[in-house]
Input
Amino acid sequence: MSKKFTKTILSAIMTGIFIGASASAVAQEFKYGVYSKNHDHDPKFISSDKFVFVYDDESKKAEIRFGSNPYNNNYANKTIIKNIQQDGTFDVVTADGSLTYRVYDKDVAALMRGVVAGGITPDKKLNLYETDVYNLVNKVWAMEKAEANVGLDKYGNVAADPSEIEEHMSLQRYLAGEAANSTIVANELDAQKGELEAQKQNLGKLTTRTDKIDAAAAATAAKVESRTLVGVSSDGTLTRAEGAKNTISVNDGLVALSGRTDRIDAAVGAIDGRVTRNTQS
Output
């Protein structure tokens, strides 16, 4: 604002300058009117019809409200700017919540310093005009309507370079879309996780079956081996393969046995010949 903020603390004692105050045992709320016309320091032009500056002594913060008879009666007594700090700054949040502006006004700051220091009196010469407040309100409203935009490329992704921007989308809408896509992806991942878990269980069952098959195959191999091998004792006698120190195949055993049988047959034949000759003689 180019003009100064209100200089007067409005109290009943100050010849009608006081607009109103409500008090309690804990805190006081001071209300300051504004000059309705550009008349310096003329109390008769102070009015709370359009705007009111309200200071809370407990919180040490202030706010600006519409007066009892604003330009639009729908706004009567409603707060426009709230949480004005002692340094005169206040925050404005956009309607979509994506941006927060920190606003500083030198006249607001001057008034806050005067109030915090012990009250505004007529000799402070801190004036506030309706036109100044109206301009500030319009500025705040413009900030509230602003929204953050995201530049998207032709694939719908956030553009890495301004030259790649094909369209703009509000940040709030973009984030909502990303959240929805993330939910879909998460659901798909959960489904895939379930499928993998089922496959894992099937592999576990298959492994168990394979172990049983391996055990059965080993038992069969041992059984077959026991039937295709024969044991050989130290004196060459053929025995069962189980527990034998040395084993040979059944075929080799049969060959060895056949050789021994042939020798036995030859020995028996020789004995028979001798017996025959002895008998004849």
